[in-house]
Structure formats: C-alpha cells, structure tokens
Amino acid sequence: MRSKLEAVVREIAEDKSSGSAQLTVKAANAFLKLIEEKPTMKSVKKLVKLLSEVRPSMPSIANMAHRILHILEEQVSEGMELTEAIEFAVRSAIKEYQNRMSSVVRHASQRLRKYTAILTHSYSSTVAAALELCEGLRIYVTESRPGFEGRSLAERLARLGFDVTLIVDSAASYVLDRGDVDAVVTGCDAVLDDCSIVNKIGTKMIALAASEAETPFIVVTDLWKAAVHGISLEEHPPEEVYEKKLPNLSSLNPYFEVVPARLITSFITDEGMFRPSRLGKRIAKMWGYISPQTDDLSKKLRVL
C-alpha cells in the first residue's frame, strides 16, 4: 500500500502540465487508494502529510487533504466506519470544491463580459472556462515561457471562434501601453495572508505594466487557494531554459513569483468580487485561522 500511495503522490509531484484544479481532485482521489487495503487513521494522516508537502506552491492540494481529514474525523466521531468515512469525505470534499469552482466561473464570466478586450498570462483552467462564456471578447495571450502554457490556451480559445492574439511575454507592456486591452485577467496558484498572490513567473512584470498603464489587474481564483498550510516557490530544471552545457553559463528557471496586493485591482472568487483589503478577512473566516501579516514575504516563502 505504501508503494501505491507513494506512486500516486509522485505522479502529482511530477505532473507539470495539469493545473491546480486537476491536481487537487487527483489528490482527493488518492485517499480512495487507502481502501484497497485495511486503512487506519495513521495511514490517512500520513497521506495528508504527503499531499500537504507534494506541491507547496499549490495550496489547494494541501487544503483538500486537510478538508478530507476534517470531514472524515467528524464522521468517525459519530460512529461511521473508517472505510465508509473515507469514501464519504472524498465525495463531499470534491463536490464542495467543484461547486466553488463552478461559482468562480459564473461570477467571472458575468464580470468579464463588460470588457471588449483583455490580456491574460499562462493557462488557468478557471479563467479559460470563464472566457469561453464571454462571446465576442478579444483576447491577448502571452506564450508564458518556458512551458508555453499560453500557446495551449490561445489554441483552445481560437478553436472556439474567439479573436485571439498570441504575444511573447515581454510584449505585454507594449500591448498595455497602446491601450489595446481594457483589463488584465489572470488566475493564481496561491493567495497569501496579505492578499498578495503567487502565480506563474512573468505575472508581476505584467501587473507592474498594468499599473503604469492604469489598466485593471483582476485575479480570478477560488478561496481554496489560500495558503493556509504554508507556501513555497518552485524552480524547475534549468534545461527548460537552455539545453546546451557551456563553461561559465548557467540557467535559472523559477516557475512562480509573488505579485503584491498593491498591484491587484480586484479578486473574482467563488463568493463574488473582493478588493484585496477585504479578501483576507473572508479567507480567515472560511478556513478558521488568523495568520499574522508581514510585509517581508521572504520570511514566509522558501524556494525549493
């Protein structure tokens, strides 16, 4: 059983193409592997620990694991047998998560329909689903190097008939300076306790350009991405940036960065639209925690 669980966790760790939504559901389903042999509360908590640490830049995975544990413990305390409690907790948590994801898409599509043209960076499945409901919207999409996730998003939207313009990441400020878009719309991988976000590298550069151009910078996210159980940033293999091996030449490949709350105009969430100044209180209430805020984010983040 241990090898099976480790294989599932390793699969999540090595999956660099799926977004946090897909990986969060995959993490939930990992608990069903425990049922293949007689589960114990110790094995459940071990899996919670493994999943909490597997992708530290994607808090929704850890939040899903802890949510399942919470539901499971409630059911066991009321007399439900552990195997049945695991199945119940997984179904309940996934349903709750998917309902919130649907709410994000609904709220976002309603808000984004008022724009004529937007710019987006990287590939957020939530943003993509919302944009698909915004008929007639013109969309600028960055390539999002080095993984080129933006190309996949651009192709998806173009096939649906949208007017899509693909640009290199560094052309975002050029598009904003020309006034080609009404807003920048991105997803995020994590929301920090001061309502800064963690997102794909390059997002901060675009947010700064949007601020200078006085263009709204909007983040579409569900509240499961709150970094309740900690956060760290991932670096990926340098070979993705430059494959040749030459003396005195090295590559740095950070995948995520922090965008400060001061650069964010608003959040569109599963509970509606929030200004950054108000979102923190809602997250604290939802997850039942109050985390001390600090302006020194380096004290909260470590780079893997």
What are the secondary-structure elements, in order, as H or E? HHHHHEHEHEHEEEHEEEEH
Overall average pLDDT: 90
Number of helices: 10
Distance between the termini: 28 Å
What is the gyration radius calculated from CA atoms? 20 Å
How many extended strands?
10
Low-confidence stretches: 289-304
Helical residue percent? 40-55%
Strand order, largest beta sheet? 3-2-1-4-7-9-10
**Helix/strand/pairing category:** alpha/beta
General description of the model:
With 304 residues, this protein is of the alpha/beta class. 44% of the residues lie in helices and 13% in strands. It has a seven-stranded mixed beta sheet. Strands 5-6-8 form a three-stranded antiparallel beta sheet, with helices on one face. Helix 2 (20-30) runs antiparallel to helix 5. It is globular, with a radius of gyration of 20 Å. Residues 289-304 have low confidence and may be disordered.
In a nutshell, what does this entry contain?
The chain is an alpha/beta fold and 304 residues long. 44% of the residues lie in helices and 13% in strands. Helix 1 (2-14) packs antiparallel against helix 2 and helix 1 runs parallel beside helix 3.
